[in-house]
Amino acid sequence: MLKGTCDFKVSASGRVNLIGEHIDYCGGKVLPAALSLKNYVHVRANGTDRVNLRWTDLPDEVTLDVTRLDGYKNVKHANYIAGSLYEWQKAGHPVVGADMLFDCHVPFGSGLSSSAAIEVSAIAAMCAVTMEPLDKPQIALAAQRAEITYAGVNCGIMDQYASACGLAGHAMLLDCATVTCRQIPLHFGDYSLVIANCNKPHNLAESKYNERRAETEAALSALQKAVDIKNLAELGVERFESVGKKLLSGKVLDRATHVVYECDRVEKAVAAMECGDVLLFGKLLNASHESLKNLYEVTGKELDTLQEAALSSPDCIGSRMTGGGFGGCVVSLVKTESKEEFASLLTEEYTKKIGYAPTVYDTEVSDGITVTKL
Length: 374
Ligand code: GLA
Known about the structure:
Radius of gyration: 21 Å
Structural class: alpha+beta
Order of helices and strands: EEEEEHEHHHEEEHHHHHEEHEE
CATH topology of the largest domain: Ribosomal Protein S5, domain 2
Helix content: 25-40%
CATH architecture of the largest domain: 2-Layer Sandwich
Bound molecules: alpha-D-galactopyranose
Strand order of the largest sheet: 5-4-6-3-1-13
Number of strands: 13
CATH class of the largest domain: Alpha Beta
Shape: globular
Largest sheet: 6 strands, mixed
């Protein structure tokens, strides 16, 4: 176990998604940003074939044998880490014995991707001790495979990519079909992002998430009979309106309508940010929330109440749920000078209606993976 000074302090971020929700697994473009809420790993090589895990907030100590990393699926807390290292090893990278101390500052269950931050930082910590250059997109892809296999969430690439590749002061326009991104400077003029957690108790988010993904796959199969597309995001509003709509019905039509128009909103949001039209950006956030509420059905009473409370403030020009939904956070664009009044109003309104308070986070957009030699 860790004695004395650690060799490296490695971090990876939680993320907020600004717009482009539930479209990463449909091959669309999304606009996430990495947060200063991070998971830290203090790590050093120990010259054995064992990875010793400890946590700052848990009494557990777990030892992983690097020759059988696939054997820890049911070990609480350690499973995501073992899974990430296993995926990294399977991709042909060295995994050696090390002592790792995990210190997570991404709130669990907040929808800000604490699991991605843990997975990504575990692999980055291994790269630090094996002196491998950091290939951040490859780290993100291995971490995503771990999330799918170990957490059972058939997720897209957005969270792990944002956690690894984020850049302070920028959002990433991430093309999930090619897994490439363009870093876009955040320009919100007099406005800032405020992130608040509705604190809804644990729910069935994972199974509902997988169900939504299956519905978009059903939409894609139906559309492919008439249109030459590889993924749903490729369809575009025009083809959807002229051909696509007629081929779908019921919930599958609703889900596809969300995906097609959300992709369009991402393009519009990036253009709005690049030309400084912050009001339009805010309107697109609201439209995204409406679509996630009515067509994709991933919000729920708590998130809707929090978003409505945000919009009841004259200082807020746009607000939406962020992440997978069914609980978690709302991101709002708020006049910077009024952030404190906004937080009070949000807390008061939400508590009045739901019976418990939200949590407003003090966080900013930051770099993804960082490695410091100690
Ligand atoms: C979760 C998943 C992501 C993405 C979002 C919704 O955070 O992990 O891959 O699908 O939901 O946009």
